[in-house]
């Protein structure tokens, strides 16, 4: 028995196939969009994490540098203080010696002996 397909049935099948193809294309587009969105979100998250890490590292470096600077300043201050103290001591000693020497010179010879 031969099976004859009418032109109307062919048209309907073609329309149905076209609709299915369109639906598939739309689904594929939607899936691609969703995948792209997800990828973008993940990339953004990763970038943000990296930026945060970099910022934290920079902050830590800056803090360390500041600490080092402060330590150096303190050391320099201490050294300066010590130098000043030593200089003052030396000056006082010299002054005392000079005074003693001048006093001895001003005293008569008989009192020295």
Largest sheet: none
Can you write the helix and strand succession as a string? Answer: HH
User: What is the terminal-to-terminal distance?
Assistant: 160 Å
Structure summary, number of beta strands:
0
Q: Could you tell me the strand content as a percent range? A: under 5%
Mean pLDDT: 93
Q: What structural class do you assign from the helix and strand content?
A: mainly alpha
Low-confidence stretches: none
Specify the number of helices: 2
**Radius of gyration over C-alpha positions, nearest whole angstrom:** 48 Å
- The best one-word shape is rod-shaped
| Helical fraction | over 70%
Oligomer: single chain
> What number of domains?
1
Protein described:
The protein is mainly α. It has one domain. The chain has two helices and no strands. The longest helix has 100 residues. It is rod-shaped, with a radius of gyration of 48 Å. The model has no long low-confidence stretch (mean pLDDT 93).
What can be said about this structure in brief?
Helix content is 92%, strand content 0%. The chain is an all-alpha fold and 113 residues long. The protein has one domain (13-106).
Annotation keywords:
113 residues, mainly alpha, 0% strand
Describe the SSE topology.
Blueprint (H helix, E strand, L loop, with lengths): L6 H100 L2 H4 L1
């Amino acid at each position: 028995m031969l099976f004859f397909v009418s032109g109307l049935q062919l048209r309907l099948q073609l329309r149905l196939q076209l609709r299915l193809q369109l639906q598939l294309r739309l689904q594929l587009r939607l899936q691609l969009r969703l995948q792209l969105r997800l990828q973008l979100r993940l990339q953004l998250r990763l970038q943000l994490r990296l930026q945060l890490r970099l910022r934290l590292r920079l902050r830590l470096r800056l803090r360390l540098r500041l600490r080092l600077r402060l330590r150096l300043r303190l050391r320099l201050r201490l050294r300066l203080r010590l130098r000043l103290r030593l200089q003052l001591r030396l000056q006082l000693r010299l002054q005392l010696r000079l005074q003693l020497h001048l006093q001895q010179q001003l005293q008569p010879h008989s009192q020295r002996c």
